[in-house]
Design brief:
The chain is mainly β. The chain is 0% helix and 60% strand. The protein is built from no helices and 11 strands. The strands form 2 sheets. Strands 2, 4, 5, 6, 9, 10 and 11 form a 7-stranded mixed sheet that branches. Strand 7 (66-71) and strand 8 (76-81) form a beta hairpin. The protein is elongated, with a radius of gyration of 14 Å.
Length: 119
C-alpha cells in the first residue's frame, strides 16, 4: 500500500492549507489514518488521526485549528489547517493502517510534504 501526501506550501501566519493523503494499492480497508509532523531539529510528532468509523483525535497544539476528514471512496484523508502559526512549520507525513485485499495487515507511511508558515 502506497501513500502520497500533497498540498504543502508556503503560507502566511493566519492562513490556511489543506493537505491530502491518498492511499493506493491492494486495499481492503483502512482502519485509521493519521498525520504527523517533524519540525527542523525535532522528533516526529502526532498531529491528528481519524478512524474508519470517523472518530478523530488531535494534538492539543492544533485543536480548534486543524480538521481531519476522509473520503472513503477515494481512500483519501484530508487535513484542513486554519489559522496557521510559524510553529506549525514542519514536514507533514501521513500514515495508514488497515487490511490488504488478501486480509493482511499493513501499516504505511507516505513521503512528507513541507508546510512553511512565514511572513
Amino acid at each position: 500500500v502506497q501513500l502520497q501526501a500533497y498540498g504543502g506550501g508556503l503560507v502566511r501566519p493566519g492562513g490556511s492549507l489543506r493537505l491530502s493523503c491518498a492511499a493506493s494499492g491492494s486495499i481492503f480497508s483502512i482502519n485509521n489514518m493519521g498525520w504527523y509532523r517533524q519540525a527542523p531539529g525535532k522528533q516526529r510528532g502526532f498531529v491528528a488521526r481519524i478512524t474508519n468509523d470517523g472518530l478523530t483525535n488531535y494534538a492539543d497544539s492544533v485543536k480548534g485549528r486543524f480538521t481531519i476528514s476522509r473520503d472513503n471512496a477515494k481512500n483519501t484523508r484530508y487535513l484542513q489547517m486554519n489559522n496557521l502559526k510559524p510553529e506549525d512549520t514542519a514536514v507533514y507525513y501521513c500514515s495508514a493502517a488497515g487490511l490488504t485485499q488478501d486480509l493482511r495487515g499493513f501499516e504505511s507511511w507516505g513521503r512528507g510534504t513541507l508546510v512553511t508558515v512565514s511572513s
